[in-house]
Amino acid sequence: MPVRPTRLLIYTLLLTLSAPAFSDPQELRDIMRHLADSVVRLIPITSTQEFDADEFRTEAATLKQYFDDAAAHFDDQPVGSQVTYEMLRERLEQVDRLSIDQSLISARNLLAESMELCASCHMQDQVSRPGFGISHVKHLDEFQAAEFSYLSRDYDSALASYRNFLNEEKTDSYQRSQALDRILSIVTEVVGDLTVANSVFSKLNLIGQSEQYRVRQWQSVFTRLQGESLVSPSRYRTVAAMDQFLSGDWPALQSFMEWNEQQAYWMLIRRQLNILLQSNSGGEAEPVLLYWLAVADRSTHFQFFESPSKRYLERCVRDHAQHPYARRCFDEYELLMIVSYSGSAGISMPTEVREDINALRKLVYSNP
Predict the structure, then answer these.
(1) Are the beta carbons of 118 and 104 closer than 8 angstroms?
(2) What is the pLDDT of residues 205-235, one digit of tens each?
(3) Of the four listed, 233, 273, 330, 351, which is most buried by Cβ atoms within 10 Å?
(4) Half-sphere exposure of residue 328, counting CA atoms within 13 Å on the CB side?
(5) What pTM, to 2 d.p., does this model score?
(6) Nearest Cα to 78, choosing from 2, 147, 21?
(7) Cβ–Cβ < 8 Å for 103, 111
């Protein structure tokens, strides 16, 4: 029986695996191939007005199976990758249960939320990984091909497909906006070259004042950074220097920026934070980086309850309860929970959430 969906986006870190965590590199390559096959089958199923329930259920179960098989890869990965894996594993388990219970609309929505929640996580090492080839995308339309390339981290192909899509598609404002955001993420968080960023955006076919205004503000940030009238986050190459900038100068600088300018700058901040996390994962400075990554994610994606921000903050408190930043992490965590459960009738927070907050508060405030 066909089920009518909204747009569904698939996954982020599923295809970011690298061989050293597996004793047999061929085992990992097989997992990656199966994941790619599953994702490329899911994209067209879920981007049509109707999809087949049995096919969706089968593919969702297949995705979960191979994602479970990839678990060993994340044992020795940086904390950001571990946080993302934990989130996606839990989501896939929920999707599987919902599919079995015939709650396919909820399953679909949960998958969509998972992509949006984790969009900030899957570029942490600024590495492009082409390798699946044209055969995987030949049955997809231009936007679907762009999404597959983006999700499988073939960023050059993704940029080309998003550019083609923007040149061809004139009416779907949601997908056009999504394509622009994907391009911004690639040129800031992966490429990190402001000249390339300006060049890419100058060649896009933009429709309407809203698109033109957004891109113009992004380019304004890039141009000011190139002219050094705006300080670049890449200048701060130690955790202490980045912490000092984000705590001191950035709030004042941010107050003079409009939202689109802040968005572009936050992505450049996140790029530098992830660079620093690669060399400081598990170290004394890790809770500082987890705190600022949580703030950056919350500031750009406005996701609160079940988000990378929440997971970063939980990890900060649980793993580093005696660190001075543990209290800042807890305060930010408590704020996220309050916002998540606030509405016109006030705060309606489930008992288990209050218990989680109290348990984390005890961890940080029981330490001298």
Answers:
(1) no
(2) 999 999 999 999 999 999 999 998 999 999 9
(3) 273
(4) 14
(5) 0.81
(6) 21
(7) no
Name the β-bridge partners of 3. Answer: 51
Whether the predicted pLDDT of 106 surpasses 90? no
